[in-house]
Amino acid sequence: MFEYNKDKHYPKETESRVVIRFQDCDPLQHLNNAKYFDYFFNAREDQVPKLYGVEMIDFIHKYKAAWVVYNHNIAYVKPAKVGEWVRIKSRLLWYNQNTVVLEYYMTDDSSKELKTLLWTTMRYVTIKEGLSTDHSGAVDEFLQATSENVDISDMTIAQRVKYLKNKLKES
C-alpha cells in the first residue's frame, strides 16, 4: 500500500528500454500509430512500482479515486521500426488541484533522436460517483515530489518537440 515518505527521493522521470515487436508494426515495418500508446502506458506501468513503490490499484483502493484520461496530444516525429531498441521516458509534466498531464516520449536507443511525444491529460475523480475531486494529503504531496511542474499554459506540443529535440542533441 502506498505511503508518501517525505524523506525519500522520488525520481521525476521513468525510463524503460524496449524492442519494437514485429506484431506491432505496419507493412512499412514502422510501429503502428495506435501501438505507441501501448508501449508508453506499459513502460510507465512497469516503472512506477519500481521507482515509487506504488501499484496504481493500491492507490485507487486507498484514496477511493483515480485519474481518468480525457485528452491525448501526440506528435509522431520519426518512426520506430521493427526490431529497433528504443528508450521510453515518462514524467508528470504538470498538475493542479484535480488534473495531471503526463509526458511520454520515445527516443532511439542512444537517447539522441526523438521519435514520438505524447501528452496525456487526466482528471482525478471519485470511484463511487465518478465526479471530479481535488488532490489532497499524501496524493498532493506525492504529485509535488514527482512533478516537473513545467508551465505548459502557453506551450504547444510542437514547441515541446523542438525543445526536447534540442535537449537530446546537447546531451
Structure description:
This protein has 171 residues and is α+β, with helices and mostly antiparallel strands. Helices cover 29% and strands 31% of the residues. It contains 4 helices and 5 strands. It has a 5-stranded antiparallel beta sheet, with helices on both faces. A hairpin with a 3-residue loop joins strand 3 (85-95) and strand 4 (99-108). It is globular, with a radius of gyration of 17 Å. The mean pLDDT is 95. This is Thioesterase. InterPro entries: HotDog_dom_sf.
Distinctive features:
171 residues, single chain, alpha+beta, 5-stranded antiparallel sheet, 4 helices, 29% helix, globular
Distance between the termini: 37 Å
> How many beta-strand elements?
5
Query: How would you classify the helix and strand content by structural class?
Result: alpha+beta
User: Mean pLDDT across all residues, rounded?
Assistant: 95
CA radius of gyration: 17 Å
Overall geometry: globular
- Helix and strand sequence: EHHEEEEHH
Protein name: Thioesterase
Pfam family, one: 4HBT_2
Organism: Belliella aquatica
InterPro entries: HotDog_dom_sf (IPR029069)
Condensed summary:
This is Thioesterase. The chain is α+β, with helices and mostly antiparallel strands.
Task: Describe the SSE topology.
Elements: E1 13-19, H1 35-52, H2 56-63, E2 65-76, E3 85-95, E4 99-108, E5 114-126, H3 137-146, H4 157-170
Antiparallel strand pairs: 1-3, 2-5, 3-4, 4-5
